[in-house]
Amino acid sequence: MDETKSIEKLDNLRKIREKRNITQVKLATDLGVTQELISRYELGSSFPQVNMLVSLSKYFNCSVDYLLGLTDVETPIKYLSSNHNADIISKYNALSNKDKSHIDSYLSFLLSNSK
To answer: Where residue 102 sits, what CATH number does that domain have?
Structure first.
């Protein structure tokens, strides 16, 4: 990444949101803000405060550096160096209840077929 780059908008916010098939409306609702604010973050007409950057980072389980475009690596450093189980648990906890239900069903399926 270019270390002299000026951070004017959150390009990676749009990338990670679209990659995970999350609409601006869903993200805004989950974070308790307006869709227009999320749009302004992505377009660069508004910049999030630190507490919102942290909330976005936790929501997507990615680093603030990734959201700011300072790295292309989504995974926070603490998860890169931690054990595999903690990473799986963290990712699971970031899922919606519906997605957690799908994972639970799939794990039950795998366990029943491995006996």
So the answer is: 1.10.260.40
Choose among 48, 77, 41: nearest CA to 61: 77
Counted domains in the chain: 1
Which pTM does this prediction carry?
A: 0.62
pLDDT tens track for 23-49: 999 999 999 999 999 999 999 899 999
Residues 87-98 have pLDDT tens digits of 777 788 888 999
Q: Is residue 39 part of a domain?
A: yes
Whole-angstrom distance, CA of residue 13 vs CA of residue 69: 9
What's the Cα-to-Cα distance from 93 to each of 4, 49, 71, 88, 109, rounded to whole Å?
35, 24, 24, 9, 20
Report residue 105 as tokens.
């069903």
Instruction: List phi, psi (to 5°) of 35.
Output: -60, -35
